[in-house]
Specification:
Layout: H1 2-16, H2 24-66, H3 72-84, H4 88-106, H5 109-128, H6 138-158, H7 166-177, H8 181-200, H9 202-224, E1 229-235, H10 239-250, E2 255-258, E3 263-264, E4 267-268, E5 273-280, H11 284-294, E6 299-305
Helix pairs in contact: 1-2, 2-5, 2-6, 3-4, 3-8, 4-5, 4-7, 6-9, 7-8, 8-9, 10-11
């Protein structure tokens, strides 16, 4: 029965997409695509849910009882809650509503829906889930409150949503004003922490900055991954040897481009292949050592890579 309903669903999906001739190949391909999509959505749902509970624990277990704040939309909500005694679970969706609308216009409808549901989930978590007040030590509150809040935001981003709309606002304003996203976020947080210093006191504002730094570092760690990847471009006449070295010594894959000759300080060059690979920061020293053995005059360019997918990114076992 379930198998029959599953097949009917796939056929309906194909007809909805305007497919006239439905072959067995199309049915199998559609089935595979639907399964992949469902797996990804389940993973995203799991990450966002864990992120919501982590942020809720950071709020109720550390920050709220000590009136410490964070940066961004979260910080604005915490600041208003501290000054007015309005429950945070009312303020979180209210403050983030304009950012959800911006996300719908500047990013995508799917992202905006996920973000709205994540923010609503956080609000419900704050309203109905009880967390113990862990400590009243100011340093511990600032560090661990920021850690759990940053982990919650980072896990939500991993799941394709945000529970703090500051970055959406930064993207929107950067397009309007022609400035960088980082500059916008810094300006927003300077205003928030200056307001906190005026209304809550300098000491609370300083501890809140520690909270923000802890949250930011945790967020970066989760979003960018445990390993920081480095993209490496190598131009050399010893292309084959370098390619073999990267594969055997480092266990990485390579992409080879056909390079055109240009003019350097030693005159015209012959055409050389260009090698591109991705390694971790811990492997940079080893790569440089091996390159020195093979081609000490090779032209090498390295740059940070935010994220990777596919290929031989994870190290294969070397024998």
């Amino acid at each position: 029965m379930i198998k029959k309903l599953w097949r009917q669903f796939i056929l309906w999906n194909l007809r909805f997409q305007g497919e006239a001739n439905i072959s067995r190949y199309k049915i199998v391909r559609t089935k595979k695509n639907i399964i992949v999509s469902l797996k990804n959505e389940f993973k995203n749902f799991f990450l966002i849910t864990i992120g919501i509970f982590s942020a809720g624990f950071g709020f109720k277990g550390f920050l709220l009882t000590n009136k410490f704040i964070d940066g961004g939309a979260t910080g604005i909500s915490l600041l208003i809650s501290a000054l007015s005694d309005i429950p945070l679970y009312y303020l979180i969706p209210l403050i983030n509503l304009p950012f959800v609308i911006m996300a719908y216009k500047t990013v995508s409808r799917n992202f905006a829906i996920k973000t709205a549901l994540a923010i609503l989930g956080l609000s419900l978590c704050l309203a109905y889930v009880k967390f113990p007040n862990v400590t009243n030590d100011n340093i511990l509150v600032a560090v661990f409150g920021g850690f759990f809040l940053g982990a919650g935001i980072g896990l939500s981003i991993r799941g394709g949503a945000v529970i703090d709309g500051t970055e959406v606002l930064a993207i929107y304003l950067s397009k309007k004003l022609g400035t960088t996203i980082g500059d916008i976020i810094i300006i927003i947080n300077v205003i928030i922490f200056s307001t906190a210093a005026y209304f809550l006191g300098i000491e609370v504002a300083l501890y809140s900055m520690i909270t923000y730094l802890a949250a930011s570092k945790t967020l970066d760690f989760l979003v960018e991954g445990i390993e920081e990847y480095i993209g490496v471009t190598i131009v050399s006449s010893r292309c084959e040897e370098i390619k073999e070295m990267i594969y055997t010594k480092l266990g990485r894959g390579v992409t080879v481009y056909n390079g055109k000759k240009g003019f350097g300080k030693r005159g015209l060059k012959e055409d050389n292949d260009i090698i591109f690979t991705v390694i971790t920061r811990l492997e940079v020293s080893k790569l440089n050592t091996e390159l020195e053995k093979i081609a000490p005059n090779a032209f090498v360019v390295m740059h940070s890579v935010k994220d990777t997918k596919g290929g031989m990114i994870k190290k294969r076992p070397l024998h």
